[in-house]
Amino acid sequence: MKRVLVAIDDSQEAKAALAHALEQFPDATIHVVHALETSTVTFDLDSTVTEEAREEAETILEGAETTANESGRTVETRVIFGHAAKAVVSYADDNDIDQIVVGSRGASGAERLLLGSVAETIVRRAACPVTVVR
Known about the structure:
single chain, alpha/beta, 46% helix, 5 strands, 134 residues, Rossmann fold, 5-stranded parallel sheet
């Protein structure tokens, strides 16, 4: 494996996905991305919602860098924009990613039927292998 992509949010499952990638792919370049859903981002660059969302994303990515550093690793981080699953798959395609690692949120029942799962959508659309970590 040369390039591994970890899609991360502030969930325990996402943190487990990062830990898994760091452990299982010791020689890979790890890309860590956080997707800002377009519904939470406004087009007004001065908007506090946009600024708050960006700050939260940066905090999440800084946490990923800290986790990697504690494991003696470094990671490449980036904020991406759009629907999370589509943005992750697009990033993977554009950056020749060999493997995607993503946390499972464990959605079930009506919520899964109505909203779908980001992890499930990534699995269905990605051109490379995807590992879903609980």
